[in-house]
Structure formats: C-alpha cells, structure tokens
Design brief:
41% of the residues lie in helices and 20% in strands. It has 354 residues and is α/β, with parallel strands linked by helices. The chain binds 3-isopropylmalic acid and manganese (II) ion.
Length: 354
C-alpha cells in the first residue's frame, strides 16, 4: 500500500482558499507521480467561521490536528473582526499549542528580474532565517489596564527562556552545517538596547563552542536590515527572536520579489508541523483570481520536504524555478497579469515536463 499523509488544512480567510487550492492541485500531481497519497481534512476555522459561530480554535480541533502528519494553512485575517483576534487564536494558537519552536523562512531569489536591488542576482540572495516561534512579545503576557481612560496603561512582555533560546540556536547551527554553503550563522538581536537580549548573546556563544566549523556573526536588528539591502550576499543562516524574525522576513520577502513568493515552515523536528505563506489574507483580492500562489506552493514543497518526500519537494522546487524564469513572467504581484490558477497550471505543466 502506498504511503498516505494526513494533512489538516486551514485554508482560512481572504485569498487563503484561492492560493491553497493551487498548492493542493500541485500536491495532487506530485503525489500521483511519486506514488504517495495526500489525505486532506479541511477545517473551516477562520474569521468567517468565527463570525458565524463565535468559535476560534477549540481544544478538540487541536487534538485532531495533533494526530495528523502536518498542517497546511492558507491565510488568516479579516477586517470585520477585531485586529489580530483570529490570527492570534489560529496562527499563534497552532504554533504555541504544537510547540512549533522553529519558524523557518528561506529567502531565495529565483531570478534577477524580481529583485528590487540593482545588480543583485540569485547568487547574491540565498539565505535562511530561523525565527524563534513560541516566545518573545508573542507569548501573550501583557494586557491593557484601565482601557480607554486617561489612566490607561498598556504592556506586553518579551519573554525568553533559556530552553527556548537554546533549542532554536542549536537548530540554526545544525542547519548552517547542513546547508554547507558559507557555514556562517548570524545572531540578530538588539542587546545594546534590550537588556534581556543578553540571554541570546550568552547562549549563542555557549552553543557556538560546539560548532567550531561554523563562523559566528552578530548584528543588531537595525544594522541587519541595512546589511540585508546593502550586502545580501553576505548572509547565509540567521537566527533571531520571534518579533525581529517577523519583521526582517517581510524585508527578505521583498528581496525575493514580494510577498507572493515567501513561504515558511513552523516546525518542531519530528512532530506535526505547520506550513504557510508568510503573506496575509489580502481581503481585497479574495476570489479575484489575481494573487500569485507561488508562496503557497512553496509552503507545500517545504511540507513535503519535512514529511520526507524529498523527490516530490525537489520537483516542485525545479518547476517553480522554471516558471519564475520564463520570459513572460515579470512580477509576482496581484498585477502580474498571470492569474492565480494560471500560476498553478504553469507549475503543473513544468512538473509534468521534468
Ligand atoms: C507572520 C504573520 C503573523 C506573525 C501574524 C499574522 C500574527 O505576520 O506569520 O509573519 O506576526 O507571526
Ligand atoms: Mn509577518
């Protein structure tokens, strides 16, 4: 009997269902060719479901998800709902409850034409950000006191545990070794202003003693942003906090051509992990068939890689490469002139021709 993978799918809001559809069309093709099965279970949870039922992400859904092989998420966010409510419940909810402590965000330029920087090509922009994914200002420690009054006080704690910092740093060192490129790992923090970031500096140095073959670098987050634009070729593997990782990977996405291409894996090695684009739900484009699903398809590729279907993952990667390099593709924005399903068709066509 062929292998079968149980995938929990949260297509979500806005363009989430549109791009998820393309990702699963591609998955259907590569699973057919590769002789394995994708056994998909759809969950309706998202903003629409919340507006209809008042339900966000119940415990029994999390329990079902825990028994699956992976989670695939389209996008979450809807302007009709209180800012961040559903995102925190579902995206952060899955990250925290499944203890997905790694947020892996590759930054790879497929072709020079997508890059907003002058004279930079695919050889210059090929690095990976390892974002801590279960702590920091996202931990939910904080709140608003006397809200709406003149005495209002708002606070949110940045939490870093030794365990949380150490495991993500160790993962990043291992990844840098495995990538076997520049064999460099850069810690990005703001220890000059945020005293608590000292735990990152010390833990990085300590874990780094076990990796003498990996060059250790450090940059404050403000400088890291500057270097990402000025010398992106000097980056190889980056490890950083949850909040900074969120911010610098949007910058990274633009170096690749835009939010239409940037994907991520929320990972706990050896456990059920979640894969998603890094873009949001772009509600104004919902159902318009204009958004680029390459990020969503790349997330599916990362999912297959995590599941151990490396060949299928590689074929998606080569197909994306082929599509992105074809002459009539010049942008991944909603005005690219290539419709959502046409992007999917093109990737599938490339896979079949490999
Ligand atoms: C991301 C998103 C989320 C984050 C939001 C939607 C909570 O921006 O995955 O990068 O901040 O992590
Ligand atoms: Mn983000």
């Amino acid at each position: 009997m062929s292998k079968s993978y149980k995938i929990a799918v949260f297509a979500g809001d806005g363009i989430g269902p549109d791009v998820t559809k393309e990702a699963f069309r591609v998955l259907d093709v590569v699973s057919d060719l590769g002789g394995f099965q994708i056994d998909r279970t759809d969950f309706p949870h998202g903003s629409e479901h919340y507006l209809e039922t008042g339900e966000l992400l119940p415990e029994e859904v999390l329990d079902r998800v825990r028994s699956m092989d992976a989670v695939y998420l389209g996008a979450i966010g809807d302007p009709r709902v209180e800012v961040g409510l559903v995102e925190r419940a579902i995206i952060a909810g899955i990250r925290f409850n499944l203890d997905l402590y790694i947020n892996l965000r590759p930054i790879r330029l497929h072709s020079e034409k997508f890059c907003p920087l002058k004279d930079k090509g695919p050889d210059d922009i090929d690095f990976i950000v390892v974002r801590e994914n279960t702590e920091d200002a996202y931990a939910g420690i904080g709140g608003i006191f006397k809200e709406g009054t003149l005495d209002e006080v708002a606070m949110q704690q940045m939490i870093y545990t030794r365990k949380g910092v150490e495991r993500v740093i160790r993962y990043a060192f291992e990844l840098s070794r495995k990538r076997n490129r520049q064999k460099k790992l850069m810690l990005v923090d703001k220890a000059n202003a945020i005293r608590a970031h000292d735990i990152w500096t010390r833990t990085f140095a300590l874990v780094g003693e076990e990796y003498p073959d990996i060059q250790q670098e450090h940059a404050y987050v403000d400088a890291a942003c500057m270097w990402m634009i000025k010398n992106p070729e000097s980056f190889d593997t980056v490890v950083t906090t949850n909040l900074f990782g969120d911010i610098i990977t949007d910058l990274g996405a633009v170096l690749q051509g835009g939010m239409g291409v940037a994907a991520s894996g929320n990972i706990h090695p050896g456990r059920v992990s979640m894969f998603e684009s890094i873009h949001g739900s772009a509600p104004k484009y919902k159902g318009k068939n204009v958004c680029c699903p390459i990020a969503a398809i790349t997330a599916a590729q990362m999912m297959l890689d995590h599941l151990g279907e490396e060949n299928a993952a590689c074929s998606i990667e080569s197909a994306i490469e082929g599509v992105m390099r074809s002459d009539d593709v010049t942008s991944v924005s909603a005005s690219s002139g290539v419709s959502t399903d046409e992007w999917g068709d093109r990737v599938i066509e490339q896979i079949r021709s490999l």
